[in-house]
Specification:
Length: 145
């Protein structure tokens, strides 16, 4: 009986590992937010890019210049930092890891890259905290470096 139980352990571990990587509606919805943000950014639409963020004074963005609270100040910072299409470049996200935390919370870890031939490429890593607010997945906290 002990041998039989020990033989089941690898099977149970494999099953639980597969369950964490299965596409779920939450993962799909969150990836769609990131896809929409990428499309908006790449057409030079910063306001459209911001639609992925929580339109609240409680939104927090953590970047190289410190903390920014609120949707409007975050939009203003993006517009200052990326005043035109040349500065914005073309955005790609990679190495995305979407981790649902509950039915209404998740985080995403990944890499961002801006291809900007005229002014030089930039990129880094990020941790996004998503919450489901009024039926929509939105970014409530963004730590990008």
């Amino acid at each position: 009986m002990r041998i039989f139980c020990w033989a089941l352990v690898p099977l149970l571990l494999l099953t639980s590992a597969c369950a964490t990587t299965r596409p779920t509606p939450a993962r799909q919805d969150i990836l769609q937010v990131l896809t929409s943000q990428t499309a908006a950014w790449n057409r030079g639409d910063v306001a459209g890019f911001m639609q992925g963020y929580w339109a609240s004074d409680s939104l927090v963005f953590i970047g190289q210049k410190g903390l920014t609270y609120g949707w409007q100040p975050t939009l203003d910072n993006y517009r200052r930092s990326y005043p035109n299409a040349e500065a914005m470049g073309q955005l790609t996200f990679s190495n995305l890891r979407v981790e649902p935390l509950s039915a209404t919370a998740a985080h995403v870890v990944g890499r961002w890259h801006l291809a900007r031939p005229a002014v030089g490429d930039v990129g880094g890593h990020f941790l996004l905290v998503f919450r489901k607010v009024n039926g929509r997945w939105v970014i409530v906290a963004d730590h990008s470096s």
